[in-house]
């Protein structure tokens, strides 16, 4: 006799959201499930979409309008999109973003891409926000960013000639509040998927990489050359990040504690989110403090610029020699490979541009 | 009325077969993996703080320890076996991964041996096959045979020039151009035990054994770039034999 043993290993989380049935007035917007790129559905876990904020056509459209609208800022001059510009893969070209009062922040703006696949849901360079919705609460009231108050935001939107109707279309209520604002923007931000770079097309068998790009990929994967893959993904992790925090040997001591400022654990000092390597062609300058203007500088950092500190990741194994000591040819090839992860279709996607123009 | 069903995380279904005529029950079994350094309890709190001395006399401290275990198998005296196919990735920085429970159709009763695979065997070690493992970049490079890491232990050891990193990573061993050895380890642990509803199995990993038996591991010689080092991979395989032991088996 053969027995079948069926086991469930790992965690099954199934969330069933039932819009309560008998209320005939219950409003339901038009579902617009996230489009999952082929490589992502093949290789990655399911995207993170909270049951309390399903993707809808009206929600995404509203979120997009809000994202590009300076109405969210204290003096009506700054939109999310000013620091997160489509042409910069939703980052900005400055070292430090500047808020409405002309005050410079202390971190480089982050690109917004594939954030529904940030499985640990730790957002910002230091992981300070634990959901996308919560992240979005923050810039609106941050004094060095949009410097507004939520009551003021809500009042401006409520008195606007279009927004009450749009909130009603998206959420079945024309009474606006901060939660609905962040939900709508989060829905839009979740649609910002990038999966159409030359390297993606190569993986899908649609294009052929140059020998230089291919050698660059080998440098990236080679344990005795770049050795970048432990933190920045590989061809089976098309996010090109492990979504976790590391100290990659930038500084001897830290003015910005990074993850340590959130966890309070000194072992986390100087650790920052390993960023995705997608769209580097559009996201300069680089690192949490935008210290490097070019990819050459970044590569030189890993090749000969590493400095030791207590919390440096042991994967920065060649720190005693200053780095992995790449040849000039390997450096150039590595750069060519990194650029093959950039996706012009992403920044030019008409669905991601300013709808208010 | 409208229903929205969202499935977060992957559901992995595993099936296994066993051949016996015992009464099979649907049982919840729990597993707990503990860690020590020669009987001194070792947890994430020790990372970056506790210094250990290995068999070679090298002083070391740990920053990261992750490993994967698969194919847990139970053996009865009459030779009948039940294999629970599937895997669990442990990460000492995440307590939740160290305990897991699952529901199995398996005969209750007396058993004599339990085994599991450290790593993934040839049948399962397929590049890119597991979304949850890809999502945490657990992959092993294709030019080293592909598939997944089996173990990743990162830390530092003391030298006359200060602390130096080591990356003790185990996976498929590259013998030469396009020739690889699977290099996973099946661990057999004997004990007479009774398996019932809610039985909990504890396993212990003695981390010191990775550096001890049979090869006294010299970190000054084998520290980084070990993934591509065939000798190091085979030494890891050899040393993995004594790393695990069986702890308490309890049924409430």
TrEMBL record, chain A:
Binding residue positions for heme c 1: 80, 83-84
The record ties this protein, via PROSITE patterns, to: CYTC, PROKAR_LIPOPROTEIN
Q: Which GO terms describe its cellular component?
A: periplasmic space
Residues of the Cytochrome c domain: 211-342
Its main localization is periplasm
- Subcellular location per the Swiss-Prot or TrEMBL entry: Periplasm
The entry's keywords: Heme, Iron, Metal-binding, Oxidoreductase, Periplasm, Peroxidase, Signal
A UniProt-annotated Pfam family: CCP_MauG
Q: Which InterPro entries match?
A: Cyt_c-like_dom (IPR009056), Cyt_c-like_dom_sf (IPR036909), Cytochrome_c_Peroxidase/MauG (IPR051395), Di-haem_cyt_c_peroxidsae (IPR004852), MauG/Cytc_peroxidase (IPR026259)
Task: Write out the GO MF terms.
Answer: cytochrome-c peroxidase activity; electron transfer activity; heme binding; metal ion binding
Instruction: Report the PTM annotation.
Output: Binds 2 heme groups per subunit.
Q: Can you quote the record's cofactor note?
A: Binds 2 heme groups.
Q: What stretch or stretches form a coiled coil here?
A: none
Cofactor requirements of the protein: heme
The record lists heme c 2 as bound by 228, 231-232
PANTHER family in UniProt: BLL6722 PROTEIN, CYTOCHROME C PEROXIDASE-RELATED
Q: What is the official name of this protein in its record? A: Cytochrome-c peroxidase
Q: Lineage, please?
A: Bacteria, Pseudomonadati, Bacteroidota, Flavobacteriia, Flavobacteriales
From TrEMBL, chain B:
Question: What name is this protein filed under?
Answer: Copper-binding protein MbnP-like domain-containing protein
Boundaries of every Copper-binding protein MbnP-like domain copy: 28-227
Q: Which UniProt keywords apply?
A: Signal
| InterPro entries to which the protein is assigned, alphabetical | MbnP-like_dom (IPR046863)
Give the signal sequence positions.
1-19
Please indicate if the UniProt record lists Protein transport as a keyword: no
Organism in which the protein naturally occurs: Planktosalinus lacus
